[in-house]
Write a structure and sequence with these properties.
five-stranded antiparallel β-sheet, four-stranded antiparallel β-sheet, Immunoglobulin-like
Length: 131
């Protein structure tokens, strides 16, 4: 299957219909949130935002994933956060039904520990077959 990803690291993902990656950071940047470019693959369009960004270690972040389906169907929406040591957060929403052209939002809260190293983190959104 086709994989669409914007990431600083190569990550192998099996059975992905669409993937979105957005960089977020635990360092001061002067803005209140990060947004990724909109990506499309296999009939799904995704984009995401992270707020607040920047945030100090130990601060909760809200990740909002927007998913639009070109046709009706049921999918699993997966939100993951990767840091220097690998995956640090994951939440998925299984059995999500879409009508043709419908856009839905999915929210995941990542509570970065106070020991979380200052670095750039990558948010990936995957669209998979349900189950």
């Amino acid at each position: 299957m086709r994989l669409v990803s914007r990431s600083m690291a190569v990550v192998e993902v099996v059975a992905v219909l669409a993937v979105l990656a957005a960089a977020i950071a635990l360092v001061p940047r002067g803005s209140s949130h990060s947004e990724a470019a909109q990506l499309s693959s296999s009939g799904y369009t995704t984009n995401a935002s992270v707020s607040p960004d920047p945030a100090a270690p130990g601060t909760a972040r809200t990740i909002t994933a927007m998913v639009t389906a070109a046709s009706a169907g049921s999918v699993l929406v997966d939100i993951e956060v990767y840091g220097p040591g690998g995956r640090v957060h994951q939440q998925f929403f299984d059995g999500q039904s879409f009508a043709a052209g419908q856009q839905r939002s999915f929210t995941s809260n990542w509570n970065a520990r106070s020991s979380t190293p200052t670095a750039t983190y990558t948010v990936k959104i995957g669209i998979f077959s349900p189950g």
